[in-house]
Design brief:
alpha+beta, BirA Bifunctional Protein, domain 2, 2 domains, 8-stranded mixed β-sheet, 3-stranded mixed β-sheet, 12 helices, 41% helix
Length: 437
């Protein structure tokens, strides 16, 4: 949620950022509506205060008139007080309606953009920052064909279980997935200083509102049919949702920051609007595995933390010897909640292209305001006023897409796939997966 002071003091700035995001006219005009609602609210509050002050004054007059025996005059003032009471009740109802509309409109506004976010409409306008490694020049078969010949992937039978966009990994394929998960977690916890979490895979509506998936992206989520503990609930689309909300409605001590968490979870996405894109295989699934990195920091340290977090995700790709590039997302491609975002894109030889494997985002205070997450800055013995914290997250990495990249970048002429050396300790020393006879 945007800082309400920015909306109040500089609505034109907010509209300028919406235009950088190529927002539609209705969203841009909602800023003017918020200003109008603010003015209406202020006028109603002032009127209500005047009526309450008048009621107190008149109530004293009623008592004095009754003591003087001026009952008729007292009754007239009582009627005036009653009318004021009715108007106050009507004002309170109007204020409640205004607050509900203000909240809905505010929750629909995306984050302000960092100055470094380039202009553009889509991924073709994203800006390359750097790249690492030498892409494999010879085209390979797709990861599906490679894996099926190795006997480690069964796409056809998985459709019997849940339909399209699911997969069954077998034997060394299942072990490779598990090895990647453990490799990611061990590197991030032992080398990068993250605290590992295991979190619920179901979250209430308010939790997804906190990180910004709701209300806008409900079509992309799997909703439970019935309520969970009295609330609407959804399967999580990413560990970002429960981990970032871990400290919602809390005030953290300044010395606790930065907090750095990592968590492995399955992720569930309906992939609404992506029909025909990577339907077969492990690129775009309804259920996939991911290791997520989450930071809580002081806002003035968020940019530095963003670079560090991105570097931690890059470390994994470098250890695995997978060529990749880092892209700064443009205004038309960046997510609803992000202030600035880097995409890491790994090289897939079968496509002759880089494909996203991690998004690393700085949200500034946007998510924290939605969640009520604050911290109390450190001071010289004085009690400082709590401030909204900054949040960041990134995939460290998406497990299935990493498996895809290993298959395609390490496949040999005989159809076997070499296991990256850094991963072999987590594979029990296995150096190569060979095709089944």
């Amino acid at each position: 949620m945007l800082d309400p002071r920015i909306l109040a003091d500089d609505p034109d700035l907010v509209k300028a950022h919406l235009m950088r995001r190529n927002a539609d006219d209705s969203l841009i005009s909602s800023v003017d509506r918020l200003v109008e609602l603010r003015d209406n609210r202020n006028a109603l509050i002032a009127e209500g205060d005047e009526l309450r002050a008048a009621r107190n004054t008149l109530s004293k007059q009623i008592g004095a008139l009754m003591r003087e025996g001026k009952r008729d005059e007292a009754e007239g003032i009582k009627a005036e007080v009653a009318a004021g009471k009715d108007r106050i009740a009507a004002i309170d109802e109007e204020l409640a309606q205004i607050e509900a509309e203000r909240h809905a409109l505010s929750m629909a506004l995306p984050n302000l953009l960092h100055d470094d976010v380039p202009p553009g409409n889509g991924d073709e306008d994203n800006l390359e920052v750097r790249r690492w490694g030498t892409p494999r020049e010879d085209a390979t078969e797709s990861h599906v064909e490679i894996a099926e010949k190795l006997g480690i992937l069964d796409v056809e039978r998985s459709t019997k279980l849940a339909g399209a966009r699911f997969a069954v990994l077998k034997g060394h394929g299942a072990r490779l997935e598990r090895a990647l998960i453990n490799f990611f977690l061990d590197v991030h916890t032992t080398e990068h200083g993250y605290e590992e979490l295991m979190v619920p895979y179901i979250a209430h509506r308010s939790i997804l509102e906190g990180t910004g998936q709701l209300p806008k992206f409900e079509a992309d989520l799997f909703k439970l049919q019935g309520e969970l503990n009295g609330q609407d609930a959804f399967l999580i689309p990413t560990a970002e949702v429960p981990v970032t909300n871990l400290h919602r409605e809390e005030i953290l001590a300044g010395e606790e920051l930065p907090k750095k968490y990592c968590a492995f979870t399955p992720c569930f996405r309906s992939e609404a609007g992506s029909a025909g894109k990577d339907v077969r295989g492990l690129i775009r699934q309804h259920q996939f595995h991911k290791v997520e990195l989450v930071w809580f920091v002081e806002p003035e340290k968020a940019e530095e933390a963003h670079e560090q977090l991105t570097g931690h995700a890059e470390t994994i790709l470098q250890r695995l010897g997978l060529p990749y590039r880092v892209m700064t997302l443009c205004g038309g491609d960046i997510s609803f909640s992000a202030h600035k975002c880097y995409d890491l894109e790994v090289w897939l030889p079968s496509q002759g292209a880089f494909r996203e494997i991690s998004s690393c985002s700085n949200f500034d205070t946007f998510q924290a305001r939605r969640m009520g997450l604050r911290y109390r800055p450190e001071t010289d013995g004085k009690k400082a006023k709590p401030r909204a914290a900054a949040t960041l997250n990134g995939s460290g990495l998406a497990v299935g897409r990493t498996l895809v990249a290993i298959l395609e970048n390490y496949v040999q002429d005989d159809g076997s796939v070499v296991i990256p050396e850094a991963l072999r300790p987590w594979m029990g020393g296995i150096e190569r997966i060979t095709p089944k006879a």
